[in-house]
Amino acid sequence: MGLGFVINDNHYRLLNKDIPLQPILLEPNTSRTIASAFSQRRALMPFWGQEPLEAHAWPTAWQNINQTPLANDSLAYVHIPFCANRCVFCGFYKNAWKEEHGTPYVDRLIAELQHAAANRVAGGSIAAVYLGGGTPTALSGPDLARLLRALQHYLPLTDDCEITVEGRISHFDRAKIDACLEAGANRFSIGVQTFHTPLRRHLGRKHGGEEAAAYLAALAGGQEAVVVADLMFGLPGQDEAIWANDLDVALGLGLDGIDVYAFNLFPGLPIQRMLEKGVFPPMSDLPVQLGFYQMALDRLAAAGWQQLSNSHFGSGQGRERNRYNLAIKSGHSCLAFGSGAGGSHAGYAYAIEADLERYLNARAPAIARVSRADPSQHWVAALQGSIEIGRIDASLLPAACLPLLQNWQQQGLITQFKDSLWSITPLARFWAPSMARALVDAA
User: Where in this chain does the record put each Radical SAM core domain (predicted)?
Assistant: First the structure.
């Protein structure tokens, strides 16, 4: 999703800067200490630190958003809220995909883009666009192509803009791939989760692991676009051998980027009911997940991959920039389009109507929520951005946060890098969302 904090602190320019991480040697018992540092993984939720505005104030806020020039290196997020089936681990499912949905939805998106361009003041640029969902590749090739061309026509994209299309193997055939490439897409993010066929079946994935691996190898082999795959660790029924194989398979496919995400069991997911009924074995506890994260760090480093963020790694080829994901977490302005999308700009965060029927029938823009940033929390976006690349700048933090840093140093979670800048130790980056949440709570 494209929800981010609205304060953009230029102290961290994440889009093109490579900040090398120094190797850190830990005491033998530090891993055990890190494993028990937090009782749960918690993160800052969208709209945290925002004051919701009453509906009567939205027109004025929206005018302010449109009349404030974009900063350079801003972002755009486009939401495609359709899925052919619901994966049992996913909390983003909203609308069942039907072919007749595609063209009217893209028509509405393009009208929204046109309306926004006509009302937005000139200035600034967009360095990364992300088509997410849902399943963007559920759309037909012609609809994907005309949407991508409309984005380039109506948005002030930089010449080297990162344009990502998120997709699933089931929907993304060669014709659609070519349509996206010809229309300007230069990055594909493919959800895989695991290559273990029995586990994939339980999760709701149609294709087996070998088929998924072959697909990704072919997609990456053409070098036509950056190709990124998502893996998930800590899934119920996933042991060390399965996870090791997932990593080894992914590393052998010629990919440009690999995401490694810890599985989070959110209330209401189908997988929760399946766990309760015994369909899956009990999920891994946090120390086991930490071990999986350590395995990923070790294998990716041994293969010469670079850690670009807490969960994202780029190959030694250097093609992967990870622009959108880094910038959204550091508070860069983000324009949002499509039912269920969220954006931020000019001190405001906003959400587009998530109900598909209401979105399609509303006049553009179909705003469902507007919030205003709390000026006293101006440091939070910079904090999130720095933590994402393994750093904490103590000079940005309120004094009430400093005892936490001292405690974390004693636990081996952080080490002083330079002056007020601290490095999060490699294994402790597993806890990065909890660390950000704890610092904000302490303030």
Answer: 67-298
Which of the 8 DSSP states describes residue 124? -
Full DSSP string of 154-195: HS-EEEEEEEEEEE-GGG--HHHHHHHHHTT--EEEEEEE--
Beta pairing partners, 80: 133
Q: What does the block give as tokens for 58? A: 């939205």
Q: Which residue shows structure tokens 């590393």?
A: 251
pLDDT above 70 covers a percentage of the chain that reads 91
Pairing of strands 342-345, 348-352: antiparallel
Say how far apart CA 58 and CA 368 lie, in whole Å. 9
**Burial class of 330 by CB neighbour count within 10 A (0 to 12, 13 to 18, 19+):** buried
Contact 216, 256 (CB under 8 A): no
Determine the 3-state secondary structure of 5 from DSSP: coil
pLDDT one-digit tens code per residue, 124-154: 999 999 999 999 999 999 999 999 999 999 9
Q: Which is higher by pLDDT, 47 or 187?
A: 187
pLDDT at residue 204, rounded to an integer? 82
